[in-house]
Design goal:
six-stranded mixed sheet, 2 domains, single chain, D-Maltodextrin-Binding Protein, domain 2, globular, alpha/beta, 19% strand
Length: 283
């Protein structure tokens, strides 16, 4: 019965934020109330709850404190909440990490191995390379996504194609929306993290898509905590995350759903090399 109650509270928490209830920054420093776990909205609220509820429940059991699993309707809303300090624990994109570090977030864990962004088109589109996308409609994730947008802007510019004038980008926020939009011919191409194509729900359509571009290695989304969290709570959360392994069926399902092989302890320094990649892409 407890598991059902926890799952229900997680769903309600996601609904609360989706309706605009972001809370105040003061909540981020409350050590006695629920711990607010924000997940970057790269999937629908339903998918985020399914993917991250098992981790939230383990953390709740370990620290003896309720964990509210939160997201937002889009990346801008999520980032606005993060910049206000409304999440005490969060899973963020590597690019957005650098945007919220000034308000006191620090890396405590990360998934492995790295992943790639890429560009997909339909097999029957006649498009074989990114140089053919001039004048085309392109679906992408969002302006805080390197693998799902930013890297490809840089690649297009290198080909002499202006990402602002020569193509029409639409930012859709969600990976599945990008894939469906390309399959339904709403868009000529889509930019996304390529490992999403390995998910079971896309098994029947993978052979209908062609990858025409691949990004450099991108470090996995980091788990971060807000400054001011008690060290023993930080350590407990890190232990829960690092303990998830492929050694039992439940853990295998969690890792598979997150599209990683393992979770390891992490720190800010792990993302410095990627910071330089981003700085070069913005020059």
């Amino acid at each position: 019965m407890k598991k059902i109650t926890n799952a229900f509270s997680l769903i309600l928490a996601s609904f609360f934020v989706l309706c605009g209830g972001g809370g105040s920054g003061a909540l981020a420093h409350d050590q006695s109330g629920p711990l607010r776990f924000g997940v970057y909205p790269y999937e629908s609220a339903r998918s985020i709850n399914r993917l991250y509820a098992p981790i939230a429940e383990r953390i709740e059991k370990k620290i003896g404190r309720k964990v509210l699993l939160l997201s937002a309707p889009d990346q801008n809303a999520f980032m606005a909440n993060a910049r206000k300090g409304n999440y005490q624990l969060a899973l963020v994109s590597p690019f957005s990490l650098f945007k919220i570090q000034p308000v006191g977030y620090q890396v405590i864990a990360r998934g492995e191995p790295s992943f790639h962004g890429g560009v997909i088109v339909r097999n029957d589109s006649g498009i074989a390379g990114p140089e053919q996308l001039r004048g085309k409609k392109i679906a992408a994730i969002g302006r805080y996504s390197y693998g799902g947008y930013l890297y490809f802007r840089q690649e297009l510019a290198g080909l002499g194609i202006s990402p602002d004038r020569d193509v029409a980008f639409t930012l859709l926020d969600k990976v599945d929306t990008v894939i469906i939009g390309v399959l339904n011919k709403q868009y000529d191409a889509g930019v996304l993290r390529l490992d999403a194509l390995n998910r079971a729900e896309f098994a029947s359509v993978r052979d209908k898509l062609l990858v025409i571009s691949r990004s450099p290695d991108i470090p996995q989304f980091p788990f971060v905590v807000k400054a001011g969290m008690e060290p023993k709570t930080v350590q407990a959360i890190r232990e829960v995350l690092a303990a998830i392994s492929g050694g039992n069926p439940e853990d295998q399902e969690i890792l598979k759903s997150l599209q990683i092989e393992r979770i390891v302890a992490g720190e800010d320094a792990d993302y410095e090399a990627f910071r330089h990649v981003l700085e070069e892409s913005e020059q």
